[in-house]
Specification:
Shape: elongated
Helix content: 55-70%
Structural class: mainly alpha
Length: 327
């Protein structure tokens, strides 16, 4: 179908709309730039908002750790009871077998009414005793199997919670990494603009000299943001002693978690530093505290002052939960 040329009032309306769009685009361009500029802070705010779910998962993992410890202890107790019940059952069977040729044989061979009554009473007593022993064995074995199933279910729940924790930590790290990348790109763009302005101001063209060739323009390349925040290249730790260093809670956690060793690494997490931070926990705490210079830095590399400050920030923000509610 051929295109139909708009005419009359329609053409006038479209012309007005084009003019309005041009004016509005020019008017709101600074606001669009401001929105892009604030995007890094928005990403940090999003990472901070994700922290509630992250710490819920962290607390769930810690609670499941305690449940597993109790379940393993109860399972071991049930195993001891089951072994004792089996031993008692074997001993009872041996007694019944060895005594079958003495008193029981005499009673079985007896012909009078009194012997018959005694035989029936002895057999009932032996059966009742055996039944009691084997019932205890059955109960202990059943309780053991039940506890083993509960332990397996708890371990599976813990594995799921750990996967969820890692996923949320990765999401937080990705937000912070994007914020870091955008801030670095904005800083680089600002420096490049300042350098270009300085070159333009200082460069002059001599009279009669041929005009300088047009400046070559380079197309900026977009570098994908890393999945985790890069460690600060120029980090220098805060010296001195934190005012919260001797706080009773921090002192207790530091002693329990690492024995006061600020550079320790537990590979099972990995858990880092005196307060055994997960990296994602450290990153989101640093972002929450406004310490972007610490985001991406391994906790065990940070100075004692900064580790104390981040632990205090996390304690004031989330309470005892990140450390399992202890101390």
């Amino acid at each position: 179908m051929p295109l139909v040329r708009q005419s009359g009032s329609r053409a006038l309306v479209l012309g007005v709309l084009v003019v309005l769009c041009t004016v509005l685009g020019t008017t709101f361009a600074p606001f669009a730039h401001a929105q892009t500029t604030n995007n890094a802070s928005d990403l940090r705010a999003q990472a901070d908002a994700l922290s509630s779910k992250y710490f819920d998962s962290l607390e769930r993992v810690s609670s499941l750790d305690d449940d597993i410890t109790r379940s393993e202890e109860l399972r071991d107790a049930m195993l001891v009871r089951a072994k004792a019940a089996r031993a008692a059952a074997r001993a009872r069977a041996a007694v019944a077998y060895t005594s079958s040729g003495t008193q029981l044989a005499t009673l079985v061979d007896g012909n009078d009414t009194l012997d018959t009554a005694r035989r029936a009473h002895l057999i009932d007593r032996v059966n009742a005793h055996d039944q009691d022993v084997f019932e205890k064995l059955h109960q202990a074995t059943r309780a053991l199997h039940k506890q083993q199933r509960a332990l397996r279910a708890t371990r599976q729940a813990q594995a799921d919670a750990l996967d969820e924790l890692k996923s949320q930590g990765a999401a937080i790290d990705a937000k912070l990494a994007q914020a870091e990348a955008q801030e670095q790109a904005q800083a680089a763009a600002t420096q490049a603009a300042a350098a270009q302005a300085a070159d333009t101001t200082t460069s002059t063209t001599a009279p009669g000299a041929p005009a300088a060739s047009a400046a070559t323009t380079t197309t900026p390349t977009t570098v994908p943001a890393p999945s985790t925040p890069p460690p600060p290249p120029d980090y220098s730790g805060t010296p001195g002693v934190s005012p919260h260093h001797d706080d009773p809670f921090l002192t207790c956690v530091r002693q329990r978690e690492s024995g006061g060793n600020y550079s320790v690494v537990n590979p099972s997490g990995p858990y880092l530093g005196a307060y055994q931070f997960l990296q994602a926990t450290w990153n989101v705490t640093a972002a929450h505290a406004g310490r972007s210079d610490l985001v991406g830095l391994p906790a065990n590399v940070a100075s004692a002052y900064d580790q104390d400050e981040m632990a205090w920030t996390l304690y004031q923000w989330q309470g005892k939960g990140p450390w399992g509610g202890s101390c």
